[in-house]
Amino acid sequence: MAKVKVATCWLDCCSGCHMSFLDIDEAIIDIAKQVEFTASPITDIKEFTPVDVGIIEGAVSNVHDEEVAKNMRANCKILMVWGDCACFGGICAMRNLFSKEDVLRRYYIETESTIKGKIPSSEDIPALLDQVKPVNQVVKVDCYVPGCPPTSKAILYALTELLQGRIPVLPSEMMRFD
After folding, report:
1. What is the rounded CA–CA span in Å between residue 153 and residue 166?
2. Domain with 164 in it: what CATH number?
3. Which letter does DSSP use for residue 78 in this model?
4. pLDDT 10s digit of each residue in the chain, 178 long?
């Protein structure tokens, strides 16, 4: 039987969701028997080719994030998002309380440790969007695994459901944090 092809990426986030994935411990061996990871921050392959499942961690904060989300969606049959940043905007969306100009000015010019600061400008630096967005405000999302970060148990459950041909819906007991 052919392995399920999976691509993952992270956008504006802390990478905690991918760390929770790695925390599934020995279950990762069983997953690896059924899955072929293509593009992933773990493999450091960044080009998306067609896959069965795409997984995004992180919010959409700049034009590059937006392009990556659209590219992932275009190259996967099912798109899953991990974590509160991807599901809801998370902590990254706190930036939405301010204009992007105010954020850039504070960060590059007004910080207490900055001397003669200036806002960088380069075609290599992706432009910030006016507002940070959850992934579903940019592309269609098929399933959600919320949490900051989601527990390894929730990620394993969602992956197992997908591998059994079902779109995962997390049970309520996985939506509680102790």
Report:
1. 17
2. 3.40.50.700
3. E
4. 689 999 999 999 999 999 999 999 999 999 999 999 999 888 888 789 999 999 999 999 999 999 999 999 999 999 999 999 999 999 999 999 999 999 999 999 999 888 888 988 899 999 999 999 999 999 999 999 999 999 999 999 999 999 999 999 888 888 766 5
Domain count within the chain: 1
27-66: burial string, b at 16+ Cβ within 10 Å, e else: ebeebeebbebbbbeeeeeeebeebbbbbbbbbbbbeebb
Cα separation of 161 and 128, whole Å?
36
Q: Which domain holds residue 10?
A: 4-96+129-170
- pTM, full prediction: 0.92
Specify if 116 maps to a domain.
Answer: no
The answer to whether 50 and 115 are in contact (CB under 8 A) is no
* 107 assigned to some structural domain: no
Locate all alpha helices (DSSP H) within the chain, ordered by sequence: 16-22, 27-34, 63-74, 83-88, 100-105, 152-163
